[in-house]
Amino acid sequence: MTAPIAILAVSALFLGVMLTMSRWLAGHLPASGEVPVHFNWRGQPDRFGSRWVTLALLPAIYGALCVVTAWMAAIRPDRINPEDFAPALLGHLVTSLIVLVAHGLVMWLMLRWVRQQR
Question: Domain count of the chain?
């Protein structure tokens, strides 16, 4: 598997999970009005805005980052050494996991906020 294809495959999996979490949470958020878009270190909302900012911003940034990463690997595939690819893919996996966990944390905090509003 070449570097760009592997990066895109891993990215598609993680992006799919993030979008699924966002879609699920969208069904639990109020249809109108503002929702938290930022939380302080205690997990309390400290800024409010459109629900789509919170649901879509991190997946959109992650998707763009993954496309740029794969594009950079595809520019000169002849210069990618197979031995160097494993650490790069591992780094991408670790970064992807961090972003996925951060998105999950924000989704959990929003769900907790919604339940407190009832």
Answer: 1
Residues near 78 by beta carbon (within 8 Å), at least 6 away in sequence:
none
Supply the pLDDT for residue 4.
Answer: 66
Predicted structure pTM score? 0.78
- Domain of residue 31 covers 3-117
What residue type is assigned to position 102 of the chain? A
Residue of 56, 63, 46 lying closest to 21 (CA atoms): 56
Is 7 in contact with 85 (CB distance < 8 Å)?
no
pLDDT of residue 34: 86
Q: What is the mean pLDDT of the chain?
A: 83
Spans of the chain below 50 pLDDT: none
